[in-house]
Amino acid sequence: MILQNIDILNFKNIASSSLEFSSGVNCLLGMNGMGKSNLLEAIHFISMARPMTQVPDSALIRHGEDLMLVKGTFHTEAGGDDIISCGLSKGKGKTLKRNGKEYRKISEHIGRFPIVTVTPSDSLIITGPAEDRRKLMDMVISQANAEYLALLIKYSHLLESRNRMLRAGVSDPLLYESVENGIIESASAIHKTRQEWVAAIAPKVEQTYARLAGGKEQTDLSYRSQLDEMTMDQLLATRREKDAVLGYTSAGVHRDDLEVRLGGYSLRRLGSQGQVKTFTVALRLAIFDFLKDEKGITPLLLLDDIFDKLDSERVESIMHEVSSSDTFGQIFITDTNRKHLNDIIAGLSGPYSLMNVSDGVFSPLNSN
């Protein structure tokens, strides 16, 4: 899949821009705060209909403006072109269209144009709360499996219904049963799907990490769920009194987590910044392989400031990974260091472009 071009209006610090992209590697050079990451976020926005970072949609609108719009043309392996536009207006919400026709539900768009991002905030996948790791699992699996996304939505709605009943002091077991039957069914399917996903992706992560770390370290990725020990109906039954006091459902797949170990020790507790960064890059590249295999579509790969906090040996390994492999299709890379980008370009045999970014304005430097 290739993003051929993009038109941007009032997106963060990008007032107005129309860009065409190389089908290979697109390098964005500039100082921090100039708009490199904002372009990647605009690409993510039309691919996923949501921000790349954890900010409200309204934060994407350029300061002082009332609306913003991003429109791009995707060319797929099947040979067709799709024009996607996603806009926001203050007080009116989000509009998402494919070839001029608005989606009935935004969820219909998820996974149609798969994308994988590596960002500085990825360290939170390791150091942050379990919620960040669940969101990662759910976003990746949802891109590959529309039925899974529907399960998540159903589970979330039913869970909130149960929580409202708990807060209201409802005691009728028949009322709880009417909601909990759906929770139990959805939770079981979500748990099984997550188990299968981790089992599929863990070996890819471990192999990629070993390459990036020069074979010096070994990682282990595993899935932790309360449903490993008890069924969802058992969890609900045993915690009913506790939940009534708390006013919310204290057990279920909404408490699941991923555990990462490095050499037998917790990466979260003992890993260096470089090791955490190396793992998150390895994880994202493994996710790329997973989505490519599952969808039969080569995702876009966005690499935002990936060389920060890494020693020269690991930087070289990552550059070799992304520039010398025919696994990847279209790649977007940002950096403040032109040497890094020049080294990547030097290792390419396919098409590329290099752009300078300054105050939201993009200027071509060279391309082939």
Describe the structure.
This protein has 368 residues and is an alpha/beta fold. Helix content is 43%, strand content 24%. It contains 11 helices and 15 strands. α4 crosses α5, α5 crosses α9 and α10 crosses α11. The chain is globular, with a radius of gyration of 22 Å. The two termini are 19 Å apart.
Question: What are the SSEs and their pairings?
Answer:
Layout: E1 2-11, E2 14-20, E3 25-29, H1 36-48, E4 67-75, E5 81-89, E6 93-98, E7 101-102, E8 115-118, H2 124-127, H3 130-144, H4 146-168, H5 173-212, E9 219-224, H6 232-238, H7 240-246, E10 257-262, E11 265-266, H8 267-270, H9 273-295, E12 300-304, H10 312-323, E13 331-335, H11 338-346, E14 352-358, E15 361-367
Parallel strand pairs: 3-13, 3-14, 8-12, 12-13
Antiparallel strand pairs: 1-2, 1-4, 4-5, 5-6, 6-7, 9-10, 10-11, 14-15
Helix pairs in contact: 3-4, 3-9, 4-5, 5-9, 10-11
